[in-house]
Write a sequence for this structure.
C-alpha cells in the first residue's frame, strides 16, 4: 500500500511541476494564435474597406 501511495503522490507532483513549467509555453502559443487571428481579421477588414471605397457612387 505504501508503494502505491508513493507512486500516486510522485505522479501528482510530476504532473503539477510539468503544468507549472509548461504555463509559459501555453502562454506563448496563445499569444501567437491571438496575433495570427488579429492579423487575419485586420487583413480581411482592410480588404473590405478598400473594396467599399472603390465602388462607384450610387446616386
Amino acid at each position: 500500500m505504501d508503494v502505491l501511495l508513493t507512486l500516486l503522490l510522485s505522479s501528482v507532483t510530476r504532473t503539477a511541476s510539468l503544468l507549472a513549467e509548461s504555463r509559459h509555453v501555453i502562454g506563448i502559443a496563445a499569444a501567437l494564435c491571438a496575433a495570427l487571428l488579429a492579423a487575419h481579421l485586420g487583413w480581411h477588414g482592410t480588404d473590405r474597406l478598400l473594396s467599399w471605397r472603390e465602388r462607384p457612387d450610387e446616386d
Notes: The first helix runs from residue 2 to 53. The mean pLDDT is 87. The radius of gyration is 25 Å. Helices lie at 2-53.
